[in-house]
Amino acid sequence: VLHRLTTWIVEPGFFSSEPVHVALVIGGSAALVSAIVGVFTVIRGQSFAGHALTDVSTAGGSGALLIGVNPLLGFVGFGVFGAAVMDAVGIRRVRGRDLATGIVLGASIGLAALILYFDTTAHATTGATQHILFGSIFTVTSATIPLVIGFGLVSILILMAIYRPLLLSTVSPEIAVARGVPSRLVGILFMAALAVSVGLSALAIGAILSTALLIGPAATALRLTKRFAWALVIACAIGVFTTWLGVLLAYDSYYWGSSHRGLPVSFFIVGAGFLLYLVSGLPGALTARASRDRTTSTSGDSRGGRPRLAIPEELNG
Amino acid sequence: MFSGFMVNAWAVATIVAVIAGVVGFFVVLRGAAFPAHAIPNGAFAGAAASSVFGFNSLVGLSACALLAAVGIGTLRRRGRQDVVTALALVMLLAIGAVFLSQTTEYEPQIYSLLFGEVLGVSTNELLPVAALGVVCVAGMALLYRPLMLSSIVPEIGEARGVVGHRIEMSFLIVLALATAMTVPVVGALLIFSLMIGPPAAARSFTDRPLTAIALSVGIALVTAWSAIALSYLSNWPIGFFVGAIAAFDYGVGRVWSVLRRPRAREVDTRPVPSV
Question: Each residue of A107-132: b (16+ CB within 10 Å) or e?
Fold first, then answer.
């Protein structure tokens, strides 16, 4: 019975397939790094900036394809460059910030359109658009694994180096300024870590979808707990779980129906993350409704605004 | 350049630019660039669905864009707005990609829906596009006063009975209608460029709202027309020119306001964008 259940869930050949192994390793690493960076991104209210970086890296990935280098180098390189541009055009100021972000985003999508056009006309490479935008993790070779792990470590190391000033300038910018934290430098370094993690998820689930791995797990985790350390742990778990589930379902989907077309991996990853986010909002919505019925005052604490986070002890000391 | 099939392109681009100029003014005023970027992806999913199931693409585009607007508007009330917008955006894109992966002309179609195509509209679609354009502009005229109030002084708006989230929802619906028809021409990813570049530039030139709207329509027209002309001459994709010229508009606006009003930033009372 157990055997039939496993073959029903996992189609034959899943565990012995080389592309699946590579996909699990690369997807898992990308999900881990993105989840950690994502928690900071969500708390800092920089989802739009994170999404804009994915579009900047789209142009980079298409460019890498055009000159024939590993797309991951294009994703990461352009992402870091885009982060610098966004800092220069004034992403730090709250006023006009979303306008500046939008302009950088629009211009880089336009550039991506042009480079993808060159890809398809000059090289006659079919599938460039799909490959870059929506990812194709099963075609990534195992030679890319060291590169992925290396970039992942860079991103995590940057975060570890700036962890305390970053957290302080995130939860209370005023105290950070009073204590002489170099907020600008910390912000730039964070954007660099963000750009690297966006590049990794771009390889895993496609450049314009990589926002899903960055924001989805982190936002879900922050709805489930108010404790920072737990948020990191839960976000990592959700990120890796949805990614591996997506790889499994995409592999299985090849055997569904008779057409043997299969469905894109990224659809399952994005869909699973989105569903988990919606489900994680249910308890909050129910409590809010219950308290509204009792007091008629709307005290939905999770509505808009920053989530109230317990500041770790060592930052207060 | 002005003969035969190109006539449609010029006509549609003109309609698109007028809508983008008017609706875009409020997108910039409300700091709604992110939802304006997310909602057209609903139209992308709709176009993809209609190409699989074979129903009228006009219906698919508008229905799915409306659905996306209502969904995003509802979810945005519960939870962090930028997070909800980001997640809805990628979800819509992924749904569109799934539909297109089941068709035979995946690659060219996905490209033209995302980045636009000058020849994306046939003659018998011109009338519906124009009709939707009229509906959008009429909707904005109807919403003009409450929208201005709730965008600039939300407190006074609430006091006069302007309910914030209802206005927000109506605005998102007009935004959805405005983007639905423009997706086949400018592309799902680039229509919002046309909605923020020209209005942002217009607002740097004048403070009076009606003048700014008129100016924004004018700049959007020039942007769309030059994008078509350049795309026709160079054979490069129209999306590239729309994105680049919109960024250029914004840059000119920034330079102008720095040169003309060096102190303006300190007395500026524009509302802080919510995204």
Answer: bbbbbbbbbbbbbbeeeeeeebbbbb
Range in A15-29, A198-212, A303-317 with the lowest mean pLDDT:
A303-317
pTM over 0.80: yes
How much is the average pLDDT of A211-237?
90
* Class of residue B201 by CB neighbours under 10 A (exposed 0-12, middle 13-18, buried 19+): buried
Q: How far apart are CA B224 and CA A39, in angstroms?
A: 39
Mark yes or no for CB contact B86/A45 under 8 Å.
no
B11: Cβ contacts below 8 Å, ≥ 6 apart: B126
Of A136-140, A271-275, B82-86, the range with the lowest mean pLDDT is A136-140
A272 to chain B, closest Cα gap in Å = 10
**CB proximity under 8 Å: A 230-269 to B:** 261, 263-264, 266-267
Q: Is A159 on the interface with B (CB under 8 A)?
A: no
> Bigger pLDDT: A143 or B19?
B19
Contact status, residue B191 vs residue B20, Cβ threshold 8 Å: yes
A206 conformational bin, left if phi > 0, alpha if psi -120 to 50, beta if neither: left
Sequence-distant contacts of B103-111: CB under 8 A, at least 24 apart: B103/B51, B103/B52, B106/A130, B107/A120, B107/A126, B107/A127, B107/A129, B107/A130, B109/B48, B109/B51, B110/A129, B110/A130, B110/A133, B110/B48, B111/A116, B111/A120, B111/A129
The three-point CA angle A58-A92-A90 to 5° equals 70
Residue B161 CB burial class (10 angstroms; 0-12, 13-18, ≥19): exposed
Lowest mean pLDDT among A86-100, B70-84, B160-174: A86-100
Distance (Å, rounded) from C-alpha A51 to C-alpha A41? 10
Q: Which of B27, B44, B75, B90 best probes binding to A when mutated, by most A CB atoms within 10 angstroms? A: B90
Q: Are A248 and A225 in contact (CB under 8 A)?
A: no
For residue A41, which of A205, A197, A207, A243 has the smallest C-alpha distance? A197
Compare all CA atoms of chain B with the CA of A125 and give the residue at the minimum distance: B107
pLDDT per residue over A148-175, tens digit each?
899 999 999 999 998 888 888 888 878 8
Q: Is A116 on the interface with B (CB under 8 A)?
A: yes
Alpha helices in B207-267 (DSSP H): 209-234, 238-260, 264-267
Q: How far apart are CA B61 and CA B50, in angstroms?
A: 8
ipTM of the complex: 0.84
Residue A229 CB neighbour total at 10 angstroms: 10
